[in-house]
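Write out a record, focusing on structure:
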Amino acid sequence: MHANHRRRPLPARVVADAVSAWITPPPSRPVAPAAEPAPGRTLLRRLGRLDRWAFDRVAATHLPGLEYVLPRVSRAADHGVLWFTAAGVMALTRRASLRRAALRGSIAIAVASPVVNTVGKQAFRRKRPVVDLVPPIRIRWKLPTSHAFPSGHSASAAAFAMGVAMEAPRAVAVPVAATAAAVAFARVYTGAHYPGDVLAGLGIGALTAVGTRLVWPARPPVAHVTRTVTEDVAINGDGAGVVAVVNTASGENAGDRPSLLPGPAEAAVHLLGRDLPAAEIVRYDPGDDLAKVMEEAAARAEVLAVVGGDGTVNAGAQAALRHDVPLLPIPGGTFDHFARALGMETAADAIAAYRGGCLGRVDVAFVTPAGTRPGDPAEIDSVFLNTASFGAYTELVDRRERLEGRLGKWPALAVAAWRTFRHSEPAEMDVNGRRRRVWLAFVGNCGYGSRGPAPTWREHLDDGRLDIRMVTAGRRVPRVRALAAVLVGHLHLTPGYKHWEDGVLELVAADGELRLARDGEVDSTASAVRFGKRPGALKVFCPRNPPR
């Protein structure tokens, strides 16, 4: 028996729900939100976009007249050629400030260049810009293929410009800085770098130049001098009343070697004859009695001018003190420390100071036999304007003078320094009542700023102090370490180094005789001596508006 079962139709609602479920996709799983980039990475991305935008704006800029100039300026700075050429030109001048500027700028480049090109570029490895927007006329040479960040050209430019600015006058520092800025801008203008590369290079170069002051402090352009307001001196436009004593053997004039250019003393004589035709010029030749020549000149002078090195100026200062006449030091020697401390680097500076009529008073220091009464005229016979030294330094001067005729001044100085440090021995002496073994000693007229074995610059010429520096030794003399400290200009690193300032220093040499160098001139003195000061004793001419 068969049973017929009829299927019941599904309700319409059920069918609708099934169709809806089939056409509707299943709900997706919840997705975790994306992690936000680190703030530092976001900042770098924004800086990168800003850097590229700035590069595009510079690329689209048209500067008439500079399309040909800036690429050549950039090319001239390749491998530091532009800066080393400028340093060479400054080194050929007879201005000590320009020579120091050239040396400091070159040292800064020598440090900044490897830091940027060896360390910086390899660390960041940034690609060079795409130069599609840069007009072809600006890309006159093959673009560099090294990494872009930071810019080596900009680092060298900033290093040299900052080094020059720390030493040279504004008349030189400003054009050098402008040239450095042109080189930095040209690196972007020619498509070689992004602006960020250039800014980083400029920062590294500037910091490197400032860092040179750690081993070689920058000197002030001029020492402070007390200006006199109650003393007058007759100033004649033609130089009447001026008696100038010229040491023809000073500085580069010394020796029998012929020279195509006149030495500084001869150049000074030429300027005196041209600018002060009524001035009396007295030539001092080797073999003459320098003290006698100075005394006779000072006796008839209203102004005593001295052309020569520091030793000659020292003799002139003694005569000026005895006759109470103002001294006009004119650079004409090798170093001219005293004239340059006053702000006069050339004979033209000294003549301008005379015509300006500005007088100042400076301290003089002296060394006399122990027991000499204060204020005794004998103090004038043994004054020094810069420094007095004893110990190994006097041996160095003696050896240099013996070798100078055969080797020349600077090679003789290097050889003498090596021999002195090898063979010199400490001297037994009492220093202010205490027994010491003194190897090297320096006494400065006023406080000195540099830290080498023979400091050269001062901030004041009227502070009333003696700057005393000594290297004392125990049983063993640290020759190698001392030589290294001297060569890098940091005598304070030598074991046994002592430095203090005072108004008086008393010495008693155990060996009986004391060899002493005053302003570079060596002679023998008594075994017991006393160093002292005469504050503001010497009248000198100084620039009315000294460089700052």
The chain is about 40% helix and 20% strand. The longest helix spans residues 96-124.
